[in-house]
Amino acid sequence: KLHSDLDKGVGTVKYTLSGDGAGTVFTIDETTGDIHAIRSLDREEKPFYTLRAQAVDVDTKKPLEPESEFIIKVQDINDNEPKFLDGPYVASVPEMSPVGAYVLQVKATDADDPTYGNSARVVYSILQGQPYFSIDPKTGVIRTALPNMDREVKEQYQVLIQAKDMGGQLGGLAGTTTVNITLTDVNDNPPRFPKSIFHLKVPESSHVGSAIGRIRAVDPDFGKNAEIEYNIVPGDGGNLFDITTDEYTQEGVIKLKKPLDFETKKAYTFKVEASNLHLDHRFHSVGPFKDTATVKINVLDMDEPPVFSKPMYTMEVYEDTPVGTIIGAVTAQDLDAGSSSVRYFIDWKNDVDSYFTIDATEGTIATNELLDRESTSQYNFSIIASKVSNPLLTSKVNVIINVLDVNEFPPEISVPYETSVCENAKPGQVIQTITAADKDLSPAGQRFSFKLSSEASNKPNFTVHDYRNNTAGIETRRNGYSRRQQELYFLPIVIEDSSYPVQSSTNTLTIRVCRCDSDGTIQSCNVEAIFLPVGLSTGALIAILLCIVILLVIVVLYVALRRQKKKDTLMTSKEDIRDNVIHYDDEGGGEEDTQAFDIGALRNPKVIEDNKIRRDIKPDTLRFPRHRPPAEDNTDIRDFINQRLQENDVDPSAPPYDSLATYAYEGNGSVAESLSSIDSLTTEADQDYDYLSDWGPRFKILADMFGEEESYNPDKVT
């Protein structure tokens, strides 16, 4: 109700209402100022309304007072029940769980005002599902209420949960939801054989390695907890058989290890043990998780249809495989004593079977048409095997062929194939982001991986960072690059796709070193710019190279002239007596001529000559030794020389290797001192050179030389 102090009750004041909801939700009596709601209000729809009221003069229509604003709040009542927005719920809990094991937490929402009264105060309770489960009335957490609930007894539980407002008091509104709880399996049950004795009949013609029967132990557990391993207990006949586990049916497949002979032995008995593969140590107290049964096998001599080696065949072939390609084979055997041959054929039912053919003798299955995985991804048909000796005896097996997709093209780098790096780049800087493209029609979720090739992974220049979103970044690994040292870098990047078979390719990214400013903006990438800081033009470089070549030619000519001049100085004239003596000496082997005679051994065999002077070069001086101490005994040397002279004079074809040449110039430090008869006496007067004239024409020049020297000797007494 609105009232103005100026209203005297005589009808001169008129009340007006404006604002949120005026005229539609609320109305006002213009005379009395009473405000009425003209329709139902919902706090959850709009919790308050803002209105403006004013009193005006009825006659002048002028406001008597300023306009006033007021707010009408909608008071909440409990008109909304709690609701489970996420229901119905699905939960699971392991079987044999202890009391109080957590299962699930439910939550109900009440739209009423939680600050006013208990309209939004929710309490949880179980209407259906006791005594197996319990719920916390405040939090809504569901827990197990009974111990050792067995999945094999009951696996599914449906629990009805109620949420009630007003704190659960009488008159409160309630909402319900359903929780479906499943007990998951644990290995709490050992395998058990349904009977203690299994009887099998086996034809004596069964082949070694073939399956002759199946036995099964029952394990009420599920999944891997129900996996069973079978073993034959050593005993009578156990060495002739073997048993394996069929991973699909968990049956024990008994196979033949050795041939059977009906005439030799008609029955075998042995025991088989079945045990769980995955044990749960919490349940060891239940007992041993294994069981034993007896198997009796009777050997029969009877005619039977062929037996396939497998109960079902699954094969795979790639799409677009050439026609006639063998993709697999089925095998059936005749286990009778007659061992008849087997023929195979496809059990035709529809046109799909025409995509394949089978070899009637070998049982090999081949493609008859090109296969398209996008059209048909799996083929299912039957193969029939019959005996040649009795075609009425047939057996059938189901064959499933899965068509595999072919990944034909490797991924490649999307453009660009060339990028650049600044000379002032820092380590870890991303210079290019690359992506890959694949020509194959890649399936959803195709992923590309990027990495450096093996030869580039050890180089400290660049690296590839795979972002794992089909992109990769090229990052620098060095602190700066120099265009003078290397202008271009070639980075081999290996890209692999995720299809089968995996395709990969090596793509080379060319990285050019460029000059950049401090902000990383490229200023120049030209090759000519590399040489600008040197300050030399191309013509100047050519001139420098020409000067170097000319200097090298001058040095070579100078060295050649020096060698020629040195060679000329070593050449001598034939008219020079000293040269004749030297040439004569060089013809012999001298003291180094061990083939002729070792004069050192002649004088003193135990003394080793320390310094041997080469006889193939010119000595430093041409002067003959004049004053030497006389040899102790020259007779034996003269006799030896004369003997060698006679031998060489008799042989006209022998070169002048006589030992006289070696004694003409001995050098310094000879162990035997001077062995020559020339100038070997104490005084020149005691030496007679006339015998040189008797040695023949080869010593004529030597005889004339010493004869002339003797004639000009002023000290000689005639």
UniProtKB/TrEMBL annotation:
**Gene Ontology molecular function, alphabetical:** beta-catenin binding; cadherin binding; calcium ion binding
Q: Which GO cellular component terms are attached?
A: adherens junction; catenin complex
- A GO BP entry: cell morphogenesis
Name the Pfam families on file: CADH_Y-type_LIR, Cadherin
Q: Which UniProt keywords apply?
A: Calcium, Cell adhesion, Cell membrane, Cleavage on pair of basic residues, Glycoprotein, Membrane, Metal-binding, Phosphoprotein, Repeat, Signal, Transmembrane, Transmembrane helix
Q: How does it sit in the membrane?
A: Single-pass type I membrane protein
What are the residue boundaries of the Cadherin domain, all occurrences included?
4-84, 85-193, 194-308, 309-413, 413-531
Q: Which SUPFAM superfamilies match?
A: Cadherin-like (SSF49313)
By what name is this protein known? Answer: Cadherin-12
Source organism: Ptilonorhynchus violaceus (Satin bowerbird)
Q: What is the lineage of its organism?
A: Eukaryota, Metazoa, Chordata, Craniata, Vertebrata
The encoding gene is Cdh12
